[in-house]
């Protein structure tokens, strides 16, 4: 089966990004969540999820992101969502999720946040 | 303005749904595409779960007069409502109960008339010990993004969920 989530690991964090999908929704979210959890082994404390290629997130997709957030937080780590499109940001606002997730405009800025 | 389209009751159809909604949002000019797509997508996915298979169809009607009204048919039984609603006596009108409860919020269902349920969000009756289940997320999400949500039982025809934005 094709992997849709790619990981780049650094000493202090891992960056997860998507390939081949544009929507994090009922069609893809369960598979993506399983892939992310498989990639985030116990040594990964902090994570950045690069959403710059994602155009749309539905309630199942937000549920998957919340599940990953819980996993990372349970390890004492931090999760940053980077490159969130304006439409997805508006949906997060509608769903009152902007205060649940930490956002960053780019992977580079998220890296600076985790390194500081 | 009135838009009507039928889709196969299959969640893999959501890309076609998104394409159609983009055209509708451009023509309507009263709702951002992302918001229209979100509420219709959530209702469509919910209807697919109860459709009983991809051989069924889901009809979506979008109408704008003073407000934007969206109706999504439900070929199955989207909500476990007593089959005896026709026999609901007048004392039951206005009866409310917690349909869904999670850690932050609750969905209250209310019998408006023998064939109509309306839904409200409430934060007063939330239960911090309850985990949000996937089937609940869609309904809560639609309520957060809309002004009014109701479910209509139509004897000898398709039931439908109505969203007002």
Commentary on this structure:
The complex is a heterodimer of chains A (116) and B (165). Chain A is of the alpha/beta class. Chain A has one domain (5-115): Transcription Regulator spoIIAA, CATH 3.30.750. Helices cover 39% and strands 22% of the residues of chain A. Chain A has helices spanning 29-39, 59-74, 86-94, 107-115, and strands at 5-9, 14-18, 23-24, 47-50, 56-57, 79-82, 102-104. In chain A, the strands form two sheets. Chain A has a five-stranded mixed β-sheet. In chain A, helix 3 (86-94) links the parallel strand 6 and strand 7. Chain A is globular and about 30 Å long. The N and C termini of chain A lie far apart (38 Å). The mean pLDDT of chain A is 92. With 165 residues, chain B is of the alpha+beta class. Chain B has two domains: 2-74, no CATH class; 90-157, no CATH class. Helix content of chain B is 27%, strand content 33%. Chain B has three helices and eight strands. Chain B has helices at residues 14-28, 33-49, 134-145; strands at residues 2-8, 57-64, 68-74, 96-101, 106-113, 116-122, 148-152, 159-164. In chain B, strands 1-2-3-8-7-6-5-4 form an eight-stranded antiparallel β-sheet, with helices on one face. In chain B, a hairpin with a 3-residue loop joins strand 2 and strand 3. Chain B starts with a strand and ends with a strand. The chains are: A alpha/beta (116), B alpha+beta (165). Chain A binds chain B through residues 23, 25-27, 56, 58-60, 62-63, 87-88, 90-91, 94-96, and chain B through 11-12, 14-15, 18, 32-35, 37-38, 41-42, 45, 132, 134, 137-138, 140-141, 144-145.
